[in-house]
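Incident log, support desk, overnight shift.

02:14 A customer reports that sequence design results differ from what the structure should imply. Their input is reproduced verbatim below. On-call engineer (initials T.W.) acknowledged and began investigating.
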């Protein structure tokens, strides 16, 4: 009596197909996951396809320092007649593709403001947006690559939200920074 055993090729093919089905099912589940968890399907897909760097604390600090130095350089080149908003400080963050970082800026009516953003060498596009107190986008720069800038003079005093979004990142995390200036 001869027993029939599946060939090695057939078994390998079945394992590959099962793995593909499992990956497709996980992607489908991620896409269907409620957005209440704060991560969209597009973010999950972008993160899954972007290589991730393993960094030491010293390397992370070096990227933060580099990003702050870029903010200094851009400010020196573009912020003539302006001073950084007191008490706000730079916003320097490690970000994944399509991740957003929001921070609040108190603004005075009639005072001109400049908001700059920069990102590290692994980032090719960072976007900048300004939202009013209701969350409505009132100004944005999504066309300036890795050095977006917003100029804005509020008609009403209040708290505004600056949104920094990592649009494209070749090796995550990418470091981005923003600084807010007011007319001196």
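02:41 Re-run completed on a clean worker. Output:
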């Amino acid at each position: 009596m001869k027993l029939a055993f599946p060939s090695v090729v057939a078994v390998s093919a079945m394992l590959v197909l099962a793995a593909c089905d499992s990956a497709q099912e996980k992607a489908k589940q991620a896409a269907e996951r409620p957005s209440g968890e704060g991560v969209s399907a597009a973010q999950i897909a972008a993160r899954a396809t972007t290589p991730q760097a393993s960094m030491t604390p010293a390397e992370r600090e070096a990227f933060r320092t580099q990003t702050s130095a870029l903010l200094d350089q851009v400010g020196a080149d573009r912020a003539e007649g302006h001073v950084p908003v007191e008490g706000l400080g730079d916003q320097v963050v490690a970000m994944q593709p399509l991740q957003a970082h929001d921070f609040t800026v108190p603004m005075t009516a009639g005072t001109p403001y400049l908001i700059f953003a920069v990102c590290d060498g692994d980032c090719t596009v960072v976007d900048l947006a300004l939202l009013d107190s209701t969350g409505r986008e009132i100004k944005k720069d999504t066309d300036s690559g890795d050095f977006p800038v917003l100029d804005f003079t509020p008609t009403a005093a209040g708290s505004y939200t600056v949104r920094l979004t990592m649009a494209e990142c070749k090796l995550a995390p990418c470091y981005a920074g923003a600084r807010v200036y007011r007319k001196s």
